[in-house]
């Protein structure tokens, strides 16, 4: 699986962005597609995940109610709609794909397929 992220940028606090992750091999629809982020000097952390078969979603507590992950199977694309952005959301955002152990989704080491990242700056 290969992914290409897009949609990052500079927005003021309270603003919105929609990130896109275009993936190959999406027809093998049993992957977790997960957005991670990494701020300078911090560890990579899971933001939101969607299971491509069935569309089950999971969110980190700090984005619940503000971010929405979705997928368009026809376009082999996963989206992350980010609303009410805060300065602490500033980070490089990565799209990852794999089949993590059951019951987990937010451990970066469980993912072997990564995009190049897209920068989100809230200021």
Task: Please describe what this structure looks like.
- By secondary structure, this protein is mostly beta strands.
- It has strands spanning 3-6, 9-11, 17-23, 32-38, 45-51, 57-59, 67-72, 77-82, 91-98, 113-114, 118-122.
- Strands 2, 4, 5, 6, 9, 10 and 11 form a seven-stranded mixed sheet that branches.
- It is globular and about 35 Å long.
- The termini are far apart.
- The mean pLDDT is 93.
Radius of gyration: 13 Å
Shape: globular
Low-confidence runs (pLDDT<50, min 5 residues)?
none
* Tally of helical runs: 0
How many beta-strand elements?
11
Write the layout of secondary structure elements.
Elements: E1 3-6, E2 9-11, E3 17-23, E4 32-38, E5 45-51, E6 57-59, E7 67-72, E8 77-82, E9 91-98, E10 113-114, E11 118-122
Parallel strand pairs: 2-11
Antiparallel strand pairs: 1-3, 3-8, 4-5, 4-9, 5-6, 7-8, 9-10, 9-11
């Amino acid at each position: 699986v290969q992914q290409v992220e897009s949609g990052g940028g500079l927005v003021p606090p309270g603003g919105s962005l929609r990130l896109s992750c275009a993936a190959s091999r999406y027809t093998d629809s049993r992957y977790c597609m997960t957005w991670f982020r990494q701020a300078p000097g911090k560890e990579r952390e899971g933001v939101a995940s969607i299971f491509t078969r069935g569309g089950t979603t999971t969110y980190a507590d700090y984005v619940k109610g503000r971010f929405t992950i979705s997928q368009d199977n026809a376009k082999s694309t996963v989206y992350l709609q980010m609303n009410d952005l805060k300065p602490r959301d500033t980070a490089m955002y990565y799209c990852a794909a794999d089949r993590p152990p059951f019951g987990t989704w937010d451990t970066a080491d469980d993912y072997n397929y990564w995009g190049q990242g897209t920068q989100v700056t809230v200021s």
